[in-house]
Amino acid sequence: MTEGATPAGYVRVTAGRCTVVTRDALADDARALLAEGMLYEAAARDLGARSLQGRGVAYAIALPVSGTRVVVRRNRHGGLFAPLTRDLFLPPTRAPYELDMARRLGAAGVRTPAVVMYGLERVHAIFCRADVVTSEIVGGRDLSTYMQPGVTNEKRAEAWCAASALVLALNAAGARHHDLNVKNILLAPGANGLDAWVLDVDRVEFRASNEASVRLGNAARLLRSARKWRDERGAVFDEREIAALDLCP
């Protein structure tokens, strides 16, 4: 998916150096946000915004026209060169790819927050900043919060059971998440207990569902993250819990 492509059901809204690709029904919301600057800056100025801490601060807001609950975040680099590259990307950035992946995952039955719009701002002639707006999952907490001291064994087991179901859904879809970690799995109350949602889907790659790299890669990446949280942050984690949930290769 390139910067110039607009998927079915989405429209393009522009203002100055900023372009937003948004669901048809939210075009007026996009225009209202752009009147305040880029999407991320507009969300940060929202008096009702709730701050969410991740690689950078994200903001949970109600869109100004429709009232739709969303989370607005700015794409940022990670890794060694993050202090230099920060939030600057070469076009088309990760945002169009994330929209494409979210749509493909949803069609495959994998829970992930819908990307309802994204915005690009041209900076320094050749670079862009990118903001991504996703549906808010009400009551969501990431998997790491269920590994903290004080969480009951029953609640932790329920969380891992939901995470296991998510891994199996990713595997069945042939979706390899190259950064599947305890912060990228969101758990929220569902009809039959906790449901797991996968985040940061710009790190997803689709392959054949029977590939070992998919079947073993997702589980191995998540297990590596869980062990790191246990060893470095004092998280509560029992290898037997995971083995019982068939997450181990």
Structure description:
The strands form three sheets. Strands 1-2-6-7-5-4-3 form a seven-stranded antiparallel β-sheet, with helices on both faces. The chain has a three-stranded antiparallel β-sheet with strand order 8-10-11. Strands 9-12 form a two-stranded antiparallel ribbon. Helix 5 packs antiparallel against helix 6 (212-233). The model has no long low-confidence stretch (mean pLDDT 90). It is α+β, with helices and mostly antiparallel strands. It has helices spanning 27-34, 39-45, 82-85, 95-107, 153-173, 212-233, 239-244; strands at 10-15, 18-23, 50-53, 57-62, 69-74, 115-123, 127-135, 141-142, 175-177, 185-190, 193-198, 204-206. The chain has seven helices and twelve strands. It is globular. Strand 1 and strand 2 (18-23) form a beta hairpin.
Give a quick rundown of the structure:
The chain has 249 residues and is an alpha+beta fold. It is globular and about 55 Å long.
> Within the largest sheet, what's the order of strands?
1-2-6-7-5-4-3
Alpha plus pi helix count: 7
Poorly predicted parts:
none
Order of helices and strands: EEHHEEEHHEEEHEEEEHH
Structural shape: globular
Helix content: 25-40%
Give the integer mean of the pLDDT values.
90
Radius of gyration: 19 Å
